[in-house]
Amino acid sequence: MSAVKKRHPTFVVGKYAALAFYLIFALFPLYWLLKIAITPDALIYSEGTRLFPSEVTLLNFTTVVFQTDFLAYFRNSLVVSLGAAFFTTLFAAGAGYAFSRFVFKGKRIIIALMLVTQMFPLLMIIAPIYKIVAELGLLNSLTSLIVVYTAFNIPFATFLMQSFFDGIPKDLEDAAMMDGCSRFQALRKVVFPLTLPGLGATLGFVFTAAWSELLFALMLISKNDAMTFPVGLLTFVSKFSVDWGQMMAAGVLALIPSCLFFIFIQRYLVQGLTSGAVKG
Amino acid sequence: MAHIELRDVAKRYGNVEVLRNIDLEIQDGEFIVLVGPSGCGKSTLLRMVAGLEPISSGDFLIDGERMNDVRPRDRDIAMVFQSYALYPHMDVARNMGFSMEIRKVPVAARKSKVAQAAETLGLTNLTDRLPKALSGGQRQRVAMGRAIIRDPQAFLFDEPLSNLDAALRVEMRLEIARLHQSLSATMIYVTHDQVEALTLADRIVVLNGGDIQQVGSPLELYERPANKFVAQFIGSPTMNVVPVAGTKTGVTAGNGTEILLPDQPLVSQAKELGVRPEHIDVVDNGTGDLSAVADVVEHLGSDTNIYVNVEGIGSMMVRKHGNIPVKSGEQLGLRIQTENAHLFAKDGTALRRVA
Ligand SMILES: Nc1ncnc2c1ncn2[C@@H]1O[C@H](COP(=O)(O)OP(=O)(O)OP(=O)(O)O)[C@@H](O)[C@H]1O
Ligand SMILES: [Mg+2]
To answer: Which residues line ligand 1 (CB under 6 A)?
Structure first.
C-alpha cells in the first residue's frame, strides 16, 4: 500500500520547488514594497538593488501618517469601499436569489443584458458617466464613487450570488415552509445563514475591487478632501521628484485593511457549510 | 387527523399536463400509499397536498374546507423529504424543534417535547450534533422527529427510505407502521418499493402517466387489478402476460393450445392472459395445460423461481414455495390455476369474472 502511494523523491522536491518559485514570484513585489518603505531616503538610490537595506527606519510611516493627507484618503477609501461592497452585495443577493429560485418573464433577457454590460471597455463609457455625475452635481463626492462602483459590480456579483443560491437545496426552503415559515422567514432563518460564505466572497470581491480602483476615482474626484487612496498615492509624485519611501509606506498601510477584511471573512469562505443537508 | 379530498385535480406546467382527473378521498387516519413508475407525478401530487406546488385546477379539501390557496404553514401538514432536508447549520435538537421555534413556543416546552421525540426515535445522545455528523439512518430519524413533534393533521412522506440500505429500510418501515398505529394520523406515502406499499398501506393509489389507474387495498390490487398496468406493477415477481385469442370457453395460445376458463363470461373478448408466477403449478411432463422446458432455475431456499420456455408462447416465470427439484433443461408440464387467472381486453382493461 504505502509503497504504491509514496512518490519518487524528485517528484516531491520538484513540487515544492515549483510552489516556492511561484510564491517568490508572487510575493517579491510585496517584499520590495516593504523594503523600500523601511529604507531611509538617503539609501534608496545608493543601495538600489540590495535585498536588505543596511539601515532601517520607520520615518516614512510616521511622515505619511502625520504629515500628509494620507489618513483622509484612507478614510475616504474605507467609506467608498465598504459602501460599494455593502450595496452591491445587498442588491446582488436579492437579484441572485430571484434568478436562482423564480421563473419569471424576461429572465433570460435580463441575464443577457447583464452579460452585455460586462463586455464594454470602461474607457468607452467614462465620458458619459462623467457627464451624468456632473449633471447630478455629484462630482467630487464619495457618493458618486459608491454609486458607480455598485453599478459596475452588480452584474458579476449577481452571478456569483446566484451560483451560491443554486448550491442550497430547494428542499430546505420547502421544509422550512412546511415547518411554519413564510417565504421570507425561510430565507432569513435557513437560506441566509447558509449563504454567509457567498455573501463573504461577494463582499470581499467588491471591497478589493473598489479599494484599488483608480480610473473613475481619478475622473470623478479632483478635490483633495474627497480623494480616495489610489488617487492620493499619485500626490506623492510631484513635478520634480517621486517620494518613493513615503509612497511605499502608504502602500504598505493600504494593504492592511484588505488583509484584515479577508481575515475577517475567511471563515465564511470556508466551504462545506451545507454538507449534511441532504442525502446519506 | 384529517379527512382529505381531491376533486378532479389537475396539474399543468405551461401546456404540459402532468396530472389529470385526480379524484381521491382519504379517510381520517388512513394510510395511503402512492406508487407508480418514475415521472408519473407522485411527488407533484404530494407537493400539491403540502401546498408547495399550486394546484392548476380542481378542488383540494381538508375536512370539507377548500384549501387550494392556503399557504403550507397554515395547512397543519408535516412532510418528510426524500433528501431529509435537515437544516445543516442547526443541531439535531434545533432541527426537530424548529417548527416550535417559528411558532414562538416557550423554550422549556420546546425542550421537553424535543427530548420526548428524541427518546421515541432513539436520538437522545445525538441532540447536540450537526446533521453532517450523523449517519443516513440517523438523519432519517431526525427528519421523522421534525415531523412528529408537530403533531400535525396529516403526514406526507416522499420516498423517505429510498436512501437507506436494505436492513435499515426494513427497520424504519416497521417504525413507520408503529408510528401510524400510535398516532393514528392520516398519512400519504410515496414509494417505489412494492413491499413498502403492500405492507404499510390501507389503500394503494397506482398512478401512471398522470392518471390514477386504480385505488384499492393491497389485496384488492393483487387479486383484482383493474388493468394490465396495475396487474404487472403490483406483485413481485411480475405477472406473466401472454397474448391469446379468446374463444367461447377459454383462450387459445399461439400454437393452438387451449386453456379452459370456466366462469368467465367475457372470455371471448380476451386478447391477453395474465397469470402470476405463483399461480402456475408444475406437473408431470405431458399433463397440465402447457408443456415447457426449464431454462434457469433459482433456488432461494424458501422459494424456487423457474424461468421456463413454453411451447408456442415463449418465456414465462413460475414461482413455487419450498425447494422444487427441477433442473435446467428439464421438460415440464404446467397447470394454470384458472381461478387466479386474469384476462385483459384489447385496451388492457381487465375482464372481470362473475361473482
Ligand atoms: N417544474 C417543472 N416543469 C415542467 N415539468 C415538470 C416540473 N416538475 C416536474 N415536472 C414533470 O412532472 C412529471 C412528474 O414529476 P414528479 O416529480 O411528480 O414524478 P415522480 O412520480 O415523483 O417521479 P420519481 O418517482 O422519479 O420521483 C415529470 O414528468 C416531470 O418531468
Ligand atoms: Mg418523486
So the answer is: B 13, 16, 18, 36, 38-44
Residues on chain B touching A276 (C-beta within 8 angstroms): 86, 88, 130-134, 139
Q: In chain A, which residues have pLDDT < 50? A: 1-2, 272-277, 279-280
B62 vs B186: CA distance, rounded Å: 11
What number of other Cβ atoms are within 10 A of residue B122's Cβ?
A: 13
Helix (H, G, I), strand (E, B) or coil at A182: coil
A242 DSSP assignment: B
Last residue of a domain, one of B229, B258, B277: B229
Buried b / exposed e over B314-332, threshold 16 CB at 10 Å, is eebbbbbeeebebeeebeb
Q: How many CB atoms lie within 10 A of CB A20?
A: 10
Q: What pLDDT, on the 0 to 100 scale, is given for residue B70?
A: 93
**In Å, how far from its chain's centre is CA B86?**
25
Which grid cell is B186?
A: 392520516
Nearest bound ligand to CA B42?
1
The DSSP bridge partners found for residue B283 are B333
Indicate whether B301 belongs to any domain: yes
| Residue B163 in grid coordinates | 436512501
By Cβ distance, the residue of A180, A189, A194 closest to B73 is A180
Q: In angstroms, what is the span from residue B38 Cα to ligand 1's centroid? A: 8
0.95 exceeded by pTM: no
Chain A residues with CB under 8 Å of B50 CB are 174, 178
The pLDDT tens digits of the residues spanning B245-299 come to 888 888 888 777 788 887 777 888 889 999 999 999 999 888 888 889 999 999 9
Q: Three-state DSSP class for B212?
A: strand
Q: Classify each residue of B168-183 as buried b or exposed e, where b means 16 or more C-beta atoms within 10 Å of its C-beta.
A: bbeebbebbeebbeee
> What does the alpha-carbon distance between residue B210 and residue B247 come to, in Å, rounded to a whole number?
35
Kindly give, in sequence order, each residue whose CB lies less than 8 Å from that of residue A3, ignoring residues fewer than 6 positions away: none
Q: Do B139 and A280 touch (CB under 8 A)?
A: yes
Distance CA B158, CA B42 (A): 8
Residue in chain A nearest B131 by alpha carbon: A276
CATH superfamily for domain A68-269: MetI-like (1.10.3720.10)
Q: Give the C-alpha separation, B131 to B84, whole Å.
A: 10
Smallest CA–CA distance, residue A172 to chain B, in Å, is 5
Which ligand lies nearest to the CA atom of residue B210 in the structure? 1
> Residue B175 belongs to a domain with what CATH number?
3.40.50.300
Pick among A102, A173, A179, A189 to test the B interface (most B CBs inside 10 A): A179
Touching check for B77 and chain A: CB below 8 Å? Answer: yes
Classified as helix, coil or strand, B27 is: coil
The beta strand positions in B47-125, using DSSP E, are 57-62, 65-66, 77-80
Average of pLDDT values for B25-39? 95
Instruction: With a threshold of 0.90, tell me whether the complex ipTM lies above it.
Output: no
Query: Has residue B332 been placed in a domain?
Result: yes
Q: Judge whether B190 and B43 are in contact, CB under 8 Å.
A: yes
* Same-domain status, B192 and B54: yes
Alpha carbon distance B302, B153 (integer Å): 41
Q: Which domain holds residue B279?
A: 244-351
State the pairing for strand pair B4-13/B16-26. Answer: antiparallel
Cβ neighbour number for residue A185 with a 10 Å cutoff: 15
Residue B274's domain is classified under what CATH number?
Answer: 2.40.50.140
| Spatial CA neighbour of B316 closest among B302, B306, B304 | B306
